[in-house]
Amino acid sequence: MQVYSENSDGTILWNASLVLRNYLQKKQSEFSGRRVLELGAGLGHLSLAISRMGAHVTSTEARCRVEEAATASGSCRCWGCVNQLRRSVKKNLALEQDVSLNEWNDVGCEGMEGKGSIRVVELQWGEEAKDRWGPLKQESETEDGKFDYIIMSEVIYNQSSDSLYDDDFHDNLIWTILQFVKPGTIIYNVFVDRPFSFMFFAKIDELPGKPFKVEVVDEKEYECLVWTCYFLCPVF
């Protein structure tokens, strides 16, 4: 399987999300009724799959980097932005109305009595961006607003345009994660080993009090040799 595939409309699907989706489907019963946050959701395929397991999924992406496309109707070829995510969720749910930011959409769950749901929220990582988090700003400050699961697929790749390590990138991601975890939160993270990817785990290990337990998922459980899957669990 290739690392990514390009769709006919020019959008990019990172295939790591399919690897993690297939793995998590084996744990489907664990997600029913749970609050799930996906960071860097891309086209939202993983968020949608988990919502169909009965979870209530907050699917997040950054603001579009192209100013003229930063509207609901604008088109863009960003590899990940909230406008693309909204359009993809609408298409996959076959909705007639637009998917509004921060609004919940019910998702039917095949073979299950309950329903899952999904909402699309703009989320830029880091403390400086917190005032633009919409509903997540308030939720991050309350115990009830924390999440049972956090999902990350191909989001720790860290390399600036000049091929150097961007120290702020992982710092902002980790700071953001810490705002949404509680004791018992499980974080799934799947990625291809690229330059500086493991610096994310080095920074996790350097956190005061070492608040996370990190484990590697046995590659036999997700049947793929290209990607590496870890899960993290807060121990505070």
Tell me the layout of helices and strands.
Layout: E1 4-6, E2 12-14, H1 16-25, H2 28-31, E3 35-39, H3 45-51, E4 56-61, H4 82-93, E5 105-107, E6 116-122, H5 135-139, E7 149-153, H6 167-180, E8 186-191, H7 199-205, E9 212-216, E10 228-234
Parallel strand pairs: 3-4, 3-7, 4-6, 7-8
Antiparallel strand pairs: 1-2, 5-6, 8-10, 9-10
Question: What would your notes on this structure say?
Answer:
There is one protein chain. The model has no long low-confidence stretch (mean pLDDT 85). The chain has seven helices and ten strands. By secondary structure, the protein is an alpha/beta fold. The protein has one domain: Rossmann fold. Helix 1 runs parallel beside helix 3 (45-51). Strand 1 and strand 2 (12-14) form a beta hairpin. An eight-stranded mixed β-sheet has the order 5-6-4-3-7-8-10-9, sandwiched between helices. A two-stranded antiparallel ribbon has the order 1-2. The protein has helices at residues 16-25, 28-31, 45-51, 82-93, 135-139, 167-180, 199-205, and strands spanning 4-6, 12-14, 35-39, 56-61, 105-107, 116-122, 149-153, 186-191, 212-216, 228-234.
